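Mods, move this if it's the wrong board.
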Amino acid sequence: MQYNFYELKEPGVDPARSLGYFFTQLPNTLDFYYYITECGHYYVNQHYFVRRESFPYNIVFLVLDGVLTVEYREHIYHLKKNDIFFMDCTDPHYYHATTEQVEFMFVHFDGKGSHELIRHLLDVQGSFVHHSNNILLRQLIKDTLLFHEQERIESTADTSLRVYKLMTYLQNNSGFVKKDQTPVEKTEAYINAHMNEKITLSDLANESGLSDYYFSRYFKAHTGVSPIEYATMKKLDYAAALLSRTDCTVSEVADQIGYTLRSFINLWTAHYEFSPLKFRKLMNSRMDFDMPPAEEIEVKRSNVSETEKVDGQSEGNREGRRSK
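Not the wrong board. Structure tokens:
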């Protein structure tokens, strides 16, 4: 629904030129989708301000003209033309027009997990979008306002996709393909290339061109785990693939991920709480590739005693193969 600014009487908003929309969500939308709660294209003067202790949604701003000042997380930010700024409004915040005239667009959005993601991005990269996705975000925000200005309608799923794309563009490692790999990407490539070797923190830090201390902090901030924890997870994933998809012995699997047999068994058991051999048995029991063709099944159904005989032989064959 479109705002009536003459009724709202927001301080400093030009009611003749400004546009705003708010949206009521259905219960299924709240449970399963991302969604927009409000969006607007505002023309304001120096009397415009918003001060809240808390507001239940996230917001992203695009400033088109003038200066909008934001006080958030104990910092003061001055947003100028083409700046994009986002925040989780559940934290106290205050923003106001600093120049005589300010033009800006905004989108309030929400959805399952959105606050956790926004807060993670705020901690990792801050509120400003300075990276190359800025141009993509600008276009997406403008397209969103134009879409509603034209009174068009889209499905809940399409709106959810729009918000998901917006959150993706907020991240500084998405959108454009970069020539230079990030430290996280370099780490993953190094681990893949040295899977059968012992990998140390210094090996990974040197590959990224960073000190051990800074690299370790950077990596955990961007992934949630330490570099060595990540390398161990990658090795265990590779070991799991070898155990379930190949005939390699447990000793051979250990060698292929750079561990002695005893060290690998101890690591595996600590992580999964059962042995590599038990894992292989469990996986093999779920992968029966010896199913008979449809016509053979029909023959079996016509003769119960013959079916039992064939089933017994088949089961024996399978057990024999698994024990090899």
